[in-house]
Amino acid sequence: MPERVVITGGAGFIGSHLCARFLNVGYEVVCIDNLSTGSKDNIASFLDRPDFFFIKHDVTEYIYVDGPVDLVLHFASPASPADYLDLPIQTLKVGSLGTHKAMGLAKAKSARFLLASTSEIYGNPLQHPQSEEYFGNVNPVGLRGVYDESKRFAEAMVMAYHRNHGVSTRIARIFNTYGPNMRLDDGRVLPNFFSQALQKKALTIYGDGSQTRSFCFISDIVEGIFRLCRTEYHDPVNLGNPEEISIKDLAEMIVNLTGTGAEIAINHPLPDGDPQVRKPDISRAMDVLGWKPVVGREDGLKITLDYFKKKVSEIH
Ligand SMILES: NC(=O)c1ccc[n+]([C@@H]2O[C@H](COP(=O)([O-])OP(=O)(O)OC[C@H]3O[C@@H](n4cnc5c(N)ncnc54)[C@H](O)[C@@H]3O)[C@@H](O)[C@H]2O)c1
Description:
By secondary structure, the chain is an alpha/beta fold. Helix content is 38%, strand content 18%. The chain folds into 2 domains: 4-177 and 215-239, Rossmann fold; 182-213 and 243-278 and 296-315, UDP-galactose 4-epimerase, domain 1.
């Protein structure tokens, strides 16, 4: 019997790559998604496979899956700031009620569980780089609190199920990830920059562009998640690329890669609570998983550029 994995949010950016990875190594994949921020396009190539099942469902409601389940990956949640600011209550609900329902499924099926948490639980960090021991600097009543606090609550829920019910849980604290299957209009910096550059519009920089981010290519994140699933390690693990870049340098790199000569427009007002720095300390992932990112920035951006070129051509 093949192992069976349930992936909530499986039609989203990261979820769809996880569907592909688990199918490739012989799992049956049950993808549950309400398509609020994801798209059936991301899973279109799997829909006819006998080992892939799609259930359109809101995971804040009771989750019913027929038959055995070996692993539950809880990835459902709006993830881009534009999405979670647009869907604040849905975001809080999927982190709280959705995590409760997904944990309930794992407990009922005696399945292993992995939560997609986020670097956002560190808020606007006072420690740099951020290690898992850092508890964060989050404003619960700020605009971004809906996402940050829902993920913090989700982590607490997961640890309670682990401690009280003995569920075999994992928490991946994922830092900024990019690659094919991101929505062109999802509002995150890379889709924004690619979309603007490819349409020869000025790239919009919020603040003076000195704020830093570290971007990890999707295949590296998928590998880290896959390895974490195979451990019995229950404390949170940062997954991300520690190579930091300022937003201004990133904009210049994208203008050069696209070769479109687009301009860069600096100093749009910085959004509320936008973190100034963001960089993972991945020592734990290196120790526990023997993992570190292997795809260089330029290579990852070139693959992503090909994907966005296709997306932009579809809208013209
Ligand atoms: N992309 C990143 O850089 C990043 C970083 C840190 C954490 N994460 C986490 O990884 C997960 C996936 O992020 P993503 O970038 O793929 O985002 P995404 O928006 O592309 O995917 C999220 C998916 O969840 C689905 N969804 C949302 N609410 C749902 C609900 N109530 N019921 C069922 N499905 C629902 C959406 O339709 C979508 O397909 C999220 O939990 C996010 O918090 C992502």
